[in-house]
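Run: sequence + glycine -> complex structure.
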Amino acid sequence: MIKHKEFTKRRHHLMEIAGQGSVVIVRATAPKIRNNDVHYPYRQNSDFLYLSGFSEPEAMLVLLPEDKGGESIMFCRERDRQREMWDGATAGTQGAKELFGFDQAFPMAEMENHLPGLLHGRERIYYDLGKDPDFDQRLIGWLNDFRSKTRKKFMAPDEITALDHNLHEMRLFKSRTEITVMRKSARIAAAAHRRAMRICKPGMNEAEIHAELLHAFTGSQCEASYIPIVGGGSNACILHYISNRDRLNDGDLLLIDAGAEFAGYASDITRTFPVNGKFSGPQRDLYEVVLRAQLEAIDEVRAGNPWDHVHETAVRVATEGMLDLGILKSSLDEALEEEHFKDYYVHNTGHWLGLDVHDVGEYEIDGHSRVLEPGMVLTVEPGIYIPASATGVDETWRGMGIRVEDDVVVTKAGADVLSADICKTIDDIEALMAE
Ligand code: GLY
Ligand code: MN
Ligand code: MN
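>> structure
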């Protein structure tokens, strides 16, 4: 678990970047109604979580870099016996200071009494406009009030700057503690995948496998970092397939894309395996292509290598494989230049991973692919999908969708695969399923 010292360090780092004369405001996510009186499970805004570790709704963090060497103020719900009978314990303002280490804490209900005073006299506000229109309006209203009431224009901040860039650069580089937490998240997800592989049999329903994944996540006191994809047969070719309600047929492959969220951090793992435990000849051939593409792409993950080399390597190896199998019919150069591979290799080879599954951070700098640096975490996830309707391809291949996805930390020496606890070679998968 991440200790408050690390959150404090993050806030101070951000305050240094924001500079004297600024105020940083980050708001907790508002709870969302699913349908009458029923809420979606609450998930804190990842920026807020990164800076505070505070997972309650109705909260707001204010950072003041020039006050007493950097002050952190939390506005949150005050403890209320009646309310806690319905919703459980809350930290309250005292808990916010004692348990979370904020310098000051005030009840959210009193926010309007305090915040304008905290803004007064600052030059710049860092705040992400556009996510909470009501609060945006109030903030702009206070600034307009200052301007109309004071002739000293410098007493009112005249800039509202997006926080994203600086904060997201910080989030892109994971600390040792974050990597430890992410390894745990990946281990929990790997265990869920092993459970699914062991239990899978022809005649089961995708929903039963989905339930096994959730059983493993919940049993580890965490949740799924996104709705698992459990796609048997040609459902694997639907990239965002989440209905997970079809029968699993003998002779088909099953693609599972499922990750855990542990202490706020996501894992994101995909494995594809035969429902009956034995790859057929063609399944083996196509699987070997995807696996080779993934392994060679992972070899490109090291500090100093541009991020797009990872994708280009996966694409080249997958394209060579599809040409060898007769799925594509041209020269390698033509298939790459004319992007014929895009008929079946339809998504990018990965993304940053962290508090968000598709984590924050730029992929390009000045129009060039970003160079990998130690501490970045990304997925490597090549996939080949040949829909049942792909009439330009021999029938053998139609309805096969294969992806292999791992979570990888960039180190000076190369790649550190966080999700190595779930096997991916054909022999290892068949052995595990035979247990
Ligand atoms: N599970 C989402 C992704 O693989 O990007
Ligand atoms: Mn995934
Ligand atoms: Mn992914």
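>> summary
The mean pLDDT is 96. The first helix runs from residue 4 to 18.
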